[in-house]
Amino acid sequence: MGNFPYDANKPAAILFTVLFGLTLVLHIFQIVRARALFMLVLIIATLLQVIGYAFRYLAIINDPQLWSLIISQVFIIVSPALLAAQDYMIVGRMMSFVGPESSVISHTVITKLFVIIDIICVITQGAGTSILSGSDVPTMDQVNLGRAILIGGLVAQIVSFLIFVVIAIAFDLKAQKTIGAQLNQLRPLLTAFYISAVLIIGRSIYRAIEFGTIDFGSEDVQGYLWDHEWPFYVLDAVPILIATVLFNVVYPAAYLPKKKGVRMDGTVEEPRKHWWSKAPEKRSTATSTTTSQDIILGRV
Fold first, then answer.
1. Looking at the domain assignment, is residue 279 inside a domain?
2. Which of 75, 98, 200, 252 could form a disulfide with 52 if both were Cys (CB 3.0 to 4.6 A apart)?
3. DSSP secondary-structure letter at 227?
4. Does residue 192 belong to any structural domain of this protein?
5. pLDDT 10s digits, 17-64
6. CA triplet 205, 6, 208: central angle to 5 degrees?
7. What is the number of domains present in the chain?
8. Distance CA 268, CA 281 (A)
């Protein structure tokens, strides 16, 4: 079995390397074409998946050293946290585009706060995974520490993302009242975000249960989710692939302006001196005949 407690599937590792590679190439093409630099985090997250599955294949073919397994585990586990960070940025851009009157909390505060939390989750999950995978015969103290750190990072990600989803729903409902039918032009992007959020949260719950139910104290590591390969692909690989491809199909740059701070009504939000400071007055940059589509396409 080598590096895995089961006869790991080589074609599956190759398949997901290729699939994530294809969506990565398409994302790069889309970001270059649209000059949507705010989508760079998605590129990084998808690249980590490609590398993760490529190194999973190396680990499957009984690489005598653990470095391929460690890279695979760390990259595949932390990548969804970066996808969550991209979701935060996309919703923050939507809030900015619609205007502060439709947000329960400043979009600047929300984006920075949750991205910072997500970075902490990434570091925590990576550290926990490294401790668990970094030794041929880890001590029980190392195992318990690594598992506690990893599960803590996963739970923190789940809780923070759930809170963010509640804030996003509140924004959605309030925007329907303030701008009405105009919100329909963002509806595909909001729907893509909701689906992405459900997939990422579901995957994180699976991972938390997987590591929480492992009995490292037994002679043979026990735990159904750990000892069988199909849950990994069905509950981790497939959901994250769908969450990634979603933003190929519903590409945010097609719905949001290239310039940060541009709003639906043709005004531009002046940058704040500090991200926690009061929003400055907005200034007009367009005539009354300017449409939000013009703004998105960079015509103003």
1. no
2. 75
3. H
4. yes
5. 999 999 999 999 999 999 888 899 999 999 999 999 999 999 998 766
6. 15
7. 1
8. 9
